[in-house]
Each structure stands twice: as structure tokens, then as C-alpha cells.
């Protein structure tokens, strides 16, 4: 079953105020900050949309507060994809699907990256398969949309500031609506 634009809005309106896995922000704050960072970096609308929606799987497959503390990997990077696939192109979907593996890759290729991860990101990294080997990181970097996923991951890591001001959800919902309209027309 596909989500509608109204369903996406409803998920953020209903569950967006829940805590973001032990971080000092809510799910909605995290989504808005990630999208704002993408926009500030000059990303195209597909990557801005992916940035907003990258953790939608947490809102669809609610596992309670900080599931990583209980040894749960909720596979959120995959969970939302069947619901979003009828609405969006791979330019939106693939960075979402790859953003967890992008964390695993960055730990392998950026010497200081692991030390900058939050406690929850370190816990979830272990549940998600751990740091990539050099060979796995190389293979990941050759995948379509890997570059976009790496950018999304870096914004994801920075989007945990409780006082950061962002555009409102309505701003990003208009982007989502434009992309859905384009996808339907294609």
C-alpha cells in the first residue's frame, strides 16, 4: 500500500514529537534539520526530500524509545520504501535506502568519523553490521546514489541540535508534492 502526501503529513503530525532515539531532538526536528542542511548545501529537491524522509521508517515501524538500547535494529532504511516507491523516483528512494550503509562506509574511510558519532549511532552501527571493510566501502562507493547517501548521512549526523531553527514542515511538504506530481507525470 502506498502512502499519500496526506499520510506522510499525518505521520509527522502524529509521531513527529516523539524522541529521536535518545538524541536531544524529536523525530520531526531531526527530519527538518536534515532537510534544511541539505537545502543549505545546495542539494537538489530529490536529495532534500530524501533528507526529510530518510527516517520515516521509524514513524511507520515504531519500536519505542531508543530501540538500539534493547538490541533492536528496526531496519528503518528499508521499512518505508514499499510505502514510498509509488510516489518517488530512485533519486529520492536510494539515498534513504543507503544512508545506514553510508554510516558504515564513512566509519571505514574517514578516520575521525566514528569518534563523532553519538552514543545511539554507535549502538545502532553494531546492530547494522558494523564498520565496512575496505573492500565493502569500495563496493559501496561504486553504487548508484552512494555519493548522495554519503551527503545525507553527514547531514543526518549534524541534525541533532535542539535549538536549531528550520523552515516549517509545510515548506518541505511543498517540495514533496512537486516531486510526487513529477513522478506521476513521468
Automatic annotation (TrEMBL):
Lineage: superkingdom: Bacteria
Domain HD: 27-120
Family matches, as SUPFAM superfamilies: HD-domain/PDEase-like (SSF109604)
Sample GO molecular function, one term: hydrolase activity
Pfam families reported for this sequence: HD
Annotated protein name in UniProt: HD phosphohydrolase-like protein
Amino acid at each position: 500500500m502506498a502512502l499519500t502526501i496526506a499520510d506522510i503529513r499525518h505521520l509527522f503530525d502524529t509521531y513527529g514529537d516523539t524522541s529521536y532515539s535518545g538524541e536531544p531532538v524529536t523525530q520531526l526536528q531531526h527530519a527538518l534539520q536534515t532537510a534544511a542542511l541539505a537545502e543549505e548545501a545546495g542539494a537538489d529537491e530529490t536529495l532534500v526530500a530524501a533528507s526529510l524522509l530518510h527516517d520515516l521508517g521509524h514513524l511507520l515501524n515504531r519500536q519505542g524509545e531508543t530501540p538500539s538500547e534493547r538490541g533492536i535494529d528496526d531496519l528503518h532504511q528499508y521499512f518505508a520504501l514499499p510505502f514510498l516507491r509509488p510516489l518517488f523516483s530512485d533519486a529520492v528512494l536510494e539515498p534513504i535506502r543507503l544512508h545506514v550503509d553510508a554510516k558504515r562506509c564513512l566509519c571505514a574511510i574517514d578516520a575521525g568519523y566514528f569518534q563523532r558519532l553519538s552514543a545511539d549511532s554507535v549502538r545502532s552501527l553494531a546492530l547494522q553490521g558494523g564498520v565496512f571493510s575496505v573492500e565493502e566501502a569500495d563496493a559501496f562507493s561504486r553504487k548508484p546514489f552512494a555519493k548522495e547517501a554519503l551527503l545525507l548521512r553527514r547531514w543526518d549526523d549534524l541534525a541533532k541540535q535542539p535549538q536549531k531553527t528550520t523552515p516549517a514542515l509545510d515548506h518541505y511538504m511543498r517540495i514533496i508534492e512537486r516531486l510526487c506530481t513529477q513522478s506521476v507525470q513521468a
